[in-house]
């Protein structure tokens, strides 16, 4: 099947009226692509509509042209740029995206989309992942730094907490690397579902538990390794709670932090009585590992 | 995670009936995101509004993950509802299919203000009135 793609540029004032013309002439909807959210307030609105290429097309195009022109008589200035028509072939749009996700090797972990084939070499661990809509595909530098951190700091038998677990990628990595128990905490119900599916796809349900919540304490564990790949503001606000979820000698790894926020995050971790042991960077992103001392100097308690 | 935004796509599509066919397919294919995931989720969230157009704004990140928000219905949809009609006029100059009051126009203008980029409620109302006329809906006092 072939489609005629009608593209035109209008303005925010006329966009709804033009859209109405296009939809009432039979387009199954109208698309408008902008390169950044800043452009959303822009008065220049590009629109695209699609019609099947058949013997009705010529008449439809004529009507669209005259109806858009007529908007001027109704007090709406449609921009007057006219439209262009391009023919596009029907494609397998629904699955085209899959070609972007390829198996990704991060240390000894291979993040493998569930539909891809991969022959693991000795020592490699396959992590099955269907990215869905949730965050955490392994393609982002912060996820990769965290995957390396789990491999560096997790000891077999450890208990791990993944705060803001997204697709569950880091929590599952923990299980594959020998954690005895992993709890992934995630605030977004869509991500929680994807994470649970991914946990099942990797057969680690007996080790990994996914909890829908927004605080580390919801995990109900004291962990040897806590990972929080979120954003600087959340990490800063949560640092005391993240530290509290650690066992003495435990390690906290935080990421999702841009370089400019490095000092603020370091201060927050120090305030939470953690010692920074490593900072890694990739591009504009950093990841910070901090340890909880064996003996914490307690604040003098207030005498009533 | 704070991720770099690759693009934003706004779609005006029928509630509960999105498919990977145009316009959804070609609009999202260039960003290589998991389209079925979007389609399923959108249809589920808009199932209660079948028969209307529910605009959606999809933000796509550099690692091909995405989020989306549903927006207010297009002015033409709100006008049709206010006028109590099913379909707008294809020949608005000759065939009038309904009427709305100026108070209804004001109400719709208020609803649509955030999306219209209008400087005042009066200019938003002018836009809504124009849209009404273009759909064959008369504005009466």
Give me the secondary-structure topology.
The complex is a heterodimer of chains A (304) and B (141).
Chain A lengths: L1 E10 L3 H10 L5 E5 L9 E9 L4 H14 L12 E7 L3 H4 L7 E3 L2 E5 L11 E5 L11 H13 L5 E5 L5 H8 L4 E6 L2 H13 L6 E5 L10 E7 L2 H13 L1 E13 L3 H10 L3 E8 L2 E7 L13
Chain B lengths: L4 E10 L9 H6 L5 H12 L6 E9 L4 E5 L4 H9 L14 E4 H15 L4 H14 L2 E4 L1
Parallel strand pairs in B: 4-5
Antiparallel strand pairs in B: 1-2, 2-3
Q: Tell me the major beta sheet of chain A.
A: 7 strands, mixed
Taken as a percent bin, the fraction of beta residues of chain B is 15-25%
Radius of gyration of chain A: 26 Å
Fraction of residues in helix of chain B: 25-40%
Beta-strand percent range of chain A: 25-35%
Please identify the top-level CATH class of the largest domain in chain A.
Answer: Alpha Beta
Number of domains of chain A: 2
Largest sheet of chain B: 3 strands, antiparallel
Query: Total number of helical segments of chain B?
Result: 5
Mean pLDDT of chain B comes to 87
Largest interface, C-beta closer than 8 angstroms, per-chain residues: A-B, 68 and 65 residues
Shape of chain A: elongated
Overall mean pLDDT of chain A = 88
- Write down the CATH topology of the largest domain in chain A: Rossmann fold
End-to-end Cα distance of chain A, whole Å, is: 80 Å
The named CATH superfamily of the largest domain in chain A = Vaccinia Virus protein VP39
